[in-house]
Structures are given as C-alpha cells and as structure tokens.
Specification:
With about 190 residues, the protein is mainly alpha-helical. It is built from eight helices and three strands, in the order ααααβααββαα. The two termini are about 35 Å apart.
Length: about 190
C-alpha cells in the first residue's frame, strides 16, 4: 500500500530518525526539498501538458534546448539537458522518428553530429510551450512574483556553487580518483 507523506511529515520523520546525529538539518532539508519539488513538478508536467504532446520530460528538455539555442552538437545538447550522451542518443532517435528532430553531420568534423528541429518540431514547441508555461504558473501559484524571483536567485546560487566547485569537491572526496561507473543498483553478473 502506497502512503503519500506531506513534505512537513517527512521533515519531522527525518529529524526524529536522525536525532542527535551531527548533521546540518537546514541544508539537508533544503536539498531534499529541491529534489522533492523537482520530482513533483516533473511528474505533474509529464502527466498533464506533456502527455498530450506524447513527450517525456527528457524529450521536452532536449527539444527545448535545441529550440532555444538552435542547431548544436549532440555533446552540448546532452550537457545542456543534463543527460548522458547515451540517453540523448535514444531520445533523439525517438524524436527523429517522430519527425521533430533531425540529425546532421558537422561541416568540418565528420565525427560530430548536429541536432536541429524540423519544421514540425518548431511547430510543436510553439504550440506546447504556452501550455507548459501555464503549468509553470500553476505550480508557482502560491508564490508572489517577488518570491519567484527570490527562489530563482537562491537556486541559481546552488547551481553556481555546484558548477564552480563541484569538480574540486568530487576530487577531494575521491582522493583524486575517477568516480566508479554508475550502476543501476543490480549486482554484477557472476561468471
């Protein structure tokens, strides 16, 4: 049986569980709520405005990046969308099969692939984005315009901290070693 807990119930339960553990609760709650808010927003958008366009959150973000920036190399699309190049390959193939995205060769380096929206992709984004923005307004409805600006500024600080110092921090935490490959959580196959 699935039980939905409110954000405040979760915060209280975590505080009770951790008790006197020497941690910084305010920072933990801030980061946990960023994650929870992002997951709630993503789920809402996928189950509403994106569902009608038959788009996942990731496919919308890929279309958005190429729509805003224009034709660009796949590695930069993946970076801007916050996904791996492998994930981008699958997403871009799906979008290409739907006639929304085109893959093309780089004019000076045949090893590189460029992505651009088709006319159909441009039309879809011009149609979907106003509805997407209406849901952004819905999600932020309890905030004033000033609070939205403050929230955006605060989140920008977190992104900037991570972008400017994250690699240095990662190297310190791993004693300079490369991170181990990501795993799905499954145990390795025994041979």
């Amino acid at each position: 049986m699935t039980v939905h807990r409110s954000i405040r119930e979760t915060e209280r339960a975590v505080r009770a569980k951790l008790g006197d553990t020497p941690i910084r609760h305010e920072q933990m709650v801030a980061v946990a709520n960023i994650y929870r808010a992002a997951a709630a927003v993503r789920q809402h958008f996928e189950n509403s405005v994106l569902r009608g366009a038959e788009l996942t959150w990731t496919s919308f973000v890929v279309l958005w990046v190429v729509w805003i920036w224009g034709e660009m190399e796949t590695r930069y699309v993946a970076e801007e969308a916050g996904i791996s190049k492998g994930t981008l390959t699958g997403v871009s193939r799906t979008l290409q099969n739907r006639g929304l995205l085109e893959r093309g060769g780089h004019p000076t380096d045949g090893r590189l692939v460029l992505l651009r929206l088709t006319d159909k992709g441009e039309e879809l984004m011009a149609e979907v984005f106003p509805a997407f923005n209406a849901e952004e307004v819905f999600v932020a409805e309890r905030l004033t315009d000033k609070e939205c600006g403050t929230l955006a500024d605060l989140l920008r600080k977190i992104v900037t901290q991570t972008e400017e110092h994250g690699e240095e921090r990662r190297l310190a935490l791993l004693d300079g070693a490369d991170p181990r490959p990501r795993r799905s959580g499954r145990r390795p196959a025994r041979g």
